[in-house]
Each structure stands twice: as structure tokens, then as C-alpha cells.
């Protein structure tokens, strides 16, 4: 059973950058698509970015060009580099498979001040 632990969130001013990390307790090599999701206060969780084992990526339209997802199966990590952050990026960020089937972690809070 894979467990996921997200980290790297924090408070940043608009225009700033953050790098989020997701550490898996088990192998994620067998999971073809891994993804980052976010849930803003009062809103449903949404998929932000995904990456396949072959490295193909997809991004939510509102973050395209500002974020970069990567994975390292050997290190069992998933990373989300976020640049040019906006207040609307404020949310709790989670990693999981796509579609999500691993138990959700606690997430990491990203707060972007204007």
C-alpha cells in the first residue's frame, strides 16, 4: 500500500515561486499516471498537473506555463515547481495517481498573498 506525504507549501507573495514535493512510501513505478491536485477553500478538488511514466505531462489551463511537474521513480518522488504564483493558486495541494486511488495524504498548504 503506497502512502503519500506532501511538503513544500508555505506563504508566498504573488509572483513568487514554490516547489512542492511528494514522497511515496512504496514504489510508484507501477502507477502510470501521477498527478498533483489542489483544493481551495469552499471548492472541489481539481487536478493541476499529471505525468506519465514516459514523461508525458498535462496541465490545468490556468497553470500552464507557470508550473512544471516531474517524477523520479527511483527516488519515489513527485515534484511540482510553481512560478509566477497568483492569489487564486491558494489551496491545499495533494499528490495522487490519476485517477486517484491511493489514500489521500494530508496535503501541503500554499498561500499566495496579493
Describe the structure.
- With 114 residues, the chain is mainly β.
- 0% of the residues lie in helices and 50% in strands.
- The protein contains no helices and ten strands.
- It has strands at residues 4-7, 10-13, 18-24, 33-39, 46-52, 57-59, 67-72, 77-82, 91-97, 108-113.
- The chain has a six-stranded mixed sheet with strand order 2-10-9-4-5-6, with no helix packed on it.
- Strand 5 (46-52) and strand 6 (57-59) form a beta hairpin.
- It is globular and about 40 Å long.
- The chain starts with a strand and ends with a strand.
Features:
about 0% helix; mainly beta; about 110 residues; 10 strands; four-stranded antiparallel β-sheet
- The helix tally amounts to 0
The percentage helix is: under 10%
SS content category: mainly beta
Spatial order of the strands in the main sheet?
Answer: 2-10-9-4-5-6
Mean pLDDT: 95
N-to-C series of helices and strands = EEEEEEEEEE
Distance between the termini: 40 Å
Overall strand count: 10
Task: Tell me what portion of residues adopts beta-strand conformation.
Answer: over 45%
Short description:
The protein has 114 residues and is mainly β. The protein is 0% helix and 50% strand. The protein contains no helices and 10 strands.
Topology diagram in text:
Blueprint: E1 4-7, E2 10-13, E3 18-24, E4 33-39, E5 46-52, E6 57-59, E7 67-72, E8 77-82, E9 91-97, E10 108-113
Parallel strand pairs: 2-10
Antiparallel strand pairs: 1-3, 3-8, 4-5, 4-9, 5-6, 7-8, 9-10
Amino acid at each position: 500500500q503506497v502512502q503519500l506525504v506532501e511538503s513544500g507549501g508555505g506563504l508566498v507573495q504573488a509572483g513568487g515561486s514554490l516547489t512542492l514535493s511528494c514522497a511515496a512510501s512504496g514504489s510508484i513505478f507501477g502507477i502510470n499516471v501521477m498527478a498533483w491536485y489542489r483544493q481551495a477553500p469552499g471548492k472541489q478538488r481539481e487536478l493541476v498537473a499529471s505525468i506519465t511514466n514516459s514523461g508525458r505531462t498535462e496541465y490545468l489551463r490556468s497553470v500552464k506555463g507557470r508550473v512544471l511537474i516531474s517524477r523520479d521513480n527511483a527516488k519515489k518522488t513527485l515534484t511540482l515547481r510553481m512560478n509566477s504564483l497568483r492569489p487564486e493558486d491558494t489551496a491545499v495541494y495533494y499528490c495522487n495517481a490519476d485517477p486517484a486511488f491511493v489514500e489521500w495524504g494530508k496535503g501541503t498548504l500554499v498561500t499566495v498573498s496579493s
